[in-house]
Design brief:
The chain is 42% helix and 26% strand. It folds into two domains: 87 residues, Beta Barrel (OB fold (Dihydrolipoamide Acetyltransferase, E2P)), CATH 2.40.50; 54 residues, no CATH class. With 159 residues, it is an alpha+beta fold.
Length: 159
């Protein structure tokens, strides 16, 4: 059974608007199961920045609230159905690793390439192009290893 996007958005908007909790060991979000298949669940969560929860967000262009859909494998212990409200968790150290892989390493790679190429060629334009170009193989590598990364960055439904 699958529920449509409009119904999922409505149900999520009716949920309490608490920020995701950052407990000692895990990051959690409230979500709604939008579909179920033999492999797992598709859960829609609303990820919001601190600005999105601010009472003055209507007067500011800084608010950021995004709907995200994640796939969660079944763990076999509890069965859920489409439309169920659930709490999705991920280990906090996995979130930190994702930030490192997605932002820190590319930044270091970009700056290092920029400085090395600029130092050897004295051509800032070439250095800028090389710095941007070096990110193509980096992100291609992440894309190539996406299935193994998907296994490492696993979400779970809290029972």
């Amino acid at each position: 059974m699958t529920i449509n996007d409009g119904e999922a958005k409505f149900r999520l908007s009716q949920m309490t608007k608490k920020k995701p909790s950052m407990q000692k060991e895990e990051i959690s979000h409230k979500g709604i199961i939008t579909s179920v298949d033999e492999n797992g669940y598709r859960v829609t969560i609303i990820s919001e920045s601190a600005c999105a929860a601010c009472h003055a967000k209507g007067f500011c262009t800084m608010s950021d609230m995004k709907e995200k859909v994640i796939d969660i494998p079944k763990n076999g212990s509890v069965e859920h159905k489409s439309g169920d409200f659930v709490k999705v968790t991920m280990k906090q150290k996995m979130g930190i690793l994702a930030v490192i892989l997605g932002y820190l390493f590319p930044f270091i790679l970009l700056i290092t390439t920029l400085l090395i190429v600029a130092g050897f060629t004295m051509n800032e334009g070439l250095a800028g192009l090389a710095a941007i170009a070096i990110l193509v193989p980096y992100y291609s590598g992440l894309y190539f290893f996406r299935n193994s990364l998907k296994k490492k960055f696993s979400f779970a439904i809290e029972t």
